[in-house]
Amino acid sequence: MGASMSQSMQLRDDLAVIARNIPAGSRVLDLGCGDGELLSWLIRRRACTGTGVERGPDEVLGAIKRGVPLIELDIDSQLGMFAPDSYDVVVLSRTLQAVLRPDLVLAAMRKIAPRQIVTMPNFGYWRHRLRLLNGHMPRSRDLPYSWYATPNLHHATLVDLEPLFQEVDLKLERRITLSPHGRPRALGQLGANLMAGSAIYVLVRADQDPAEL
């Protein structure tokens, strides 16, 4: 039973990295929460409270089974329903590339919470570049779909993405680059735009007093 419980509460590698950057007791809004794995873990293990946002039928069912508080809404158009500073942290994991206007979504997140955590696939990863040179659209663990079936609307390299944060008045507090398997890279930031499969960004408001975080 102990081994079974331990396994059931073990987070996916990239989600574990996100969880380490969320203080215990935080109010968390998880946009595109999938089956609620992260939020369920935070509620059970870190005394957090929060809400998941998801629209996929299978994912919604999975989150409900985990007992995660859930709202079904359109991230592109309905984030205004959340009051300013109603959460401490907003998480947007593997979702920014699938929204219509990433800049507007980030700006809305900035109002909802003083801290944001964003995960984004790196279109500049060397294997993606090689596939393009060979005449094919990139596919990987972080970009698993065929070109005709992908939900992703935007593809960005790390160096393309980071100026967007500045445009919406978000300051980069920490960047954790991940291997293609979703684990933190041993070489950290070295050659990240070429070698990282994806990256996790911990962001705060540009004008935020650090003492208030």
TrEMBL record:
Entry coiled-coil feature ranges: none
The organism's place on the tree of life at top rank: Bacteria
Signal peptide per UniProt: none
Alphabetical list of SUPFAM superfamilies matching this protein: S-adenosyl-L-methionine-dependent methyltransferases
Entry-linked Pfam families: MetW
Protein name: Methionine biosynthesis protein MetW
